[in-house]
Structures are given as C-alpha cells and as structure tokens.
Specification:
The chain is of the alpha+beta class. The protein is 24% helix and 24% strand. The strands form 2 sheets. The chain has a 6-stranded mixed sheet with strand order 4-7-6-5-1-8. It has a two-stranded antiparallel sheet with strand order 2-3. The radius of gyration is 18 Å and the shape is globular. The N and C termini lie far apart (40 Å). The N terminus is likely disordered. This is Thymocyte nuclear protein 1. It comes from Menura novaehollandiae. It is found in: Nucleus. One of its GO terms (cellular component) is nucleus.
Length: 242
C-alpha cells in the first residue's frame, strides 16, 4: 500500500532556505482552463554548454560539438518531515522510498496542471533527482528512475485522501502519476543553497543553470531538467560543499 498523498503541488510553498525567492501568485493561480491549455509536453530548452572548467571538460568529451537540448531529466520534490494535510501525514523521505517493496512507489497526489503535464511527458528509464523539500535544509539526496509511465492517479477518487477531487471522473481522469524506483543516493547531500549559488553565477555568465526551474518556478513539485542542468548538478556531488 503506497504512502498516502506524500507529494504536493496545490498550495505548495517555497523552500524555507530561500528567503529571497519571489513567490508570484500569477502562474500558480492560473485558472484550470488556462493550465489545461498548456502543452502536455515540456518545451524544448537551449543553453550554452557548461560553465568555466566544467564547460571545458564537457566540450573536450564531446569534441566541442553541441547537440540540441531537450528536457529529459526531472526533479521530484517530496517532504521528509511530518506535516498533516486533512489529518493525513504527507511525509515521504528517500528512506521511506527505500523501504518500499522493490524500492518502488507511485508518485501520486500531484494537483497542478503543469506538473501533471510534466508527469505525462516522463519516459521509461529517465532519471530524476529526489529532492527533500519544505524542510530545515532542502536539497537533492538521491537519484530515482521512471519505471512506469503516466497512468491515472488513484488518490483522486479516494474520498479519504487529502488530494481527493470530486470533479474528476474515472472515464476521464484529471490527474496522473508515474512509478519511480530508487537508483542510488547522491555521493553527498547537494543543498539548495549551493545550487542557488551556481544559478546566480550562471545567470550572469550564461552557464547551464541560468534558467533552472528550481528558481524560476520554485513552487512546482515536478520540474524538468535539461541534460546540461542534470549533468552539472550531478557533477557537484564530486566536489566539496560550497
């Protein structure tokens, strides 16, 4: 039996360790009609390859050639600390995932149309960062992979679930989920504060994290990553905390 309603979108808040993040009401409070009209696929992205030494390394590996960049990796937020939502504890840490049968679970409870569309774009075998959110120190703790593509989220029909949606119909479900499986822990915890330092530097110098959705759409619990974004963040696990 999967852990109930552990993932969040509706009414999500920014991570506590990012006090200067500007939380706009606009896009997250867009009407359902406007949200549903958005593309079911994440847009193609483009960015300059790498940054400083990282850029030189990647260019050397690829012979200096750059390929077209698309969103092919993901960042999934989940709350590792107890929080009650309509009487149900929505806590779900990476340790909870590892304790599941075959270290696999459904990623349910997403109630934001853009996040849902991202879920529906996920492909079998794609990897994602498991991100601890809304906690004392948010950041990336592990890597997971998609082991089942989008299918109807059962919690939308469960009246006892915090994410029950009385307007959704079984013949035409509004909400989807995917199954994810634990791959490995990152070699070290990669905190939001460190990723943000690189993001700010890349905004100035044109590095791969300049448009990272973790900072441009920080309220979304499902976020796409370009190959360059994923590779750069993954490279941080080899270094010392900044």
């Amino acid at each position: 039996m999967p852990w109930p309603s552990r993932k969040r979108d509706k009414g999500a808040v920014a991570d506590k360790k990012e006090p200067d993040a500007k939380i706009a009401k606009t896009k997250e409070q867009t009407s359902e009609k406007e949200e549903e009209e958005k593309s079911a696929k994440p847009p193609a992205g483009s960015s300059k390859s790498g940054w400083k030494n990282w850029k030189k390394t990647k260019e050397s590996e690829s012979g200096g050639e750059e390929s077209k960049i698309t969103y092919c990796h993901w960042l999934l937020k989940s709350e590792p600390e107890s929080r009650l939502d309509k009487g149900v504890d929505v806590k779900f840490s990476v340790d909870d995932l590892k304790a599941q049968p075959n270290q696999t679970t459904c990623w349910d409870g997403v109630r934001n149309y853009q996040a849902r569309n991202f879920l529906r774009s996920m492909k079998l075998g794609q990897q994602a960062f498991f991100y601890h959110s809304n906690c004392k120190e948010p950041g990336i703790v592990a890597i997971v992979k998609i082991v089942k593509e989008a299918y109807p989220d059962h919690t939308q029909f469960d009246q006892k679930d915090p994410h029950y949606d009385s307007t959704s119909r079984k013949e035409n479900p509004k909400w989807s989920m995917v199954d994810v499986q634990f791959v490995r822990m990152t070699k070290r915890f990669i905190p939001l504060s460190e990723i943000k330092t690189h993001h700010l530097a890349h905004k100035a110098d044109g590095g791969p994290l300049k448009n990272m959705m973790l900072f441009t759409r920080q309220r979304l619990s499902i976020q796409p990553l370009t190959q360059e974004e994923f590779d750069f963040v993954l490279s941080l696990e080899e270094g010392k905390p900044r």
